[in-house]
Amino acid sequence: MAVQACLHWRDTSAERRIISSMPANDRCLFCRIASGEIATKKIFEDDQVVAFNDINPQAPTHVLVIPRKHIASLDDLNEEDAAIIGTTLVRVSEIARTLKLNGEGYRVVANHGEDAGQTVFHIHFHLLGGRNFSWPPG
Ligand code: AMP
Ligand code: ZN
After folding, report:
1. How many whole angstroms separate alpha carbon 76 and alpha carbon 112?
2. CB of 77 within 8 A of CB of 85?
3. Does the C-beta of 120 come closer than 6 Å to ligand 1?
4. What are the distances in angstroms from CA 20 to CA 25, 57, 96?
5. For a pocket test of ligand 1, which of 30, 38, 115, 120 has the largest count of ligand atoms closer than 8 A to its C-beta?
6. CB contact at 8 A, 116 and 132
7. How far is the CA of 134 from the centre of ligand 2 (A)?
8. From the centroid of its chain, how far is CA 129?
9. What is the CATH number that goes with domain 13-129?
10. Number of neighbours of residue 90 by Cβ within 10 angstroms
11. How far is CA 119 from the centre of its chain?
12. What is d(CA 6, CA 99) in angstroms, rounded to the nearest whole number?
């Protein structure tokens, strides 16, 4: 599904079957956001990927883009996750274009582990834009 103005994903029974067959962790915050158990204004969702604003934004635009599939972190990826991670990154790119971040530039961050500052152990990509970013990162 193309992002196209961040239209919301249609909740048809066929699509619900796809989701219900996906492994999820019912204690995981982002699984609960993805499933709708925790109400969050989503800026994009389809059958595989969900995006919503970070609750503690670090830039004028700070979106979290997550696969619906529960994967704890980059360190837990294996070959069978290649397609879903690829799709998630394509959605990051589409959302960045929809939000018009592509002209000036944006940053995509994935933290793995406590030293890197990972606090939610469901893999996610931070999409940050709307200001200048220094390098190296802190
Ligand atoms: P990380 O520290 O890389 O694991 O990123 C987790 C992000 O999730 C942080 O930037 C938090 O601000 C954000 N976060 C935590 N809880 C929520 C929530 N309920 N809704 C939106 N973002 C959240
Ligand atoms: Zn999860």
Report:
1. 10
2. yes
3. yes
4. 12, 31, 28
5. 120
6. no
7. 30
8. 15
9. 3.30.428.10
10. 13
11. 15
12. 9
124 is catalytic: yes
> Model-level pTM?
0.88
14 sits in which H/E element? helix 13-20
Task: Return d(Cα 70, Cα 121) in angstroms, integer.
Answer: 9
Q: What is the per-residue pLDDT across 60-90, written as a single tens digit (0 to 9) for each?
A: 999 999 999 999 999 999 999 999 999 999 9
What is the residue extent of each domain of the chain?
A: 13-129
Q: What are phi and psi of 116, to 5 degrees?
A: -90, -5
Q: DSSP string spanning 80-134?
A: GGHHHHHHHHHHHHHHHHHTT-TTT-EEEE---SGGGT--S-S--EEEEESS---
Query: 75: helix, coil or strand?
Result: helix
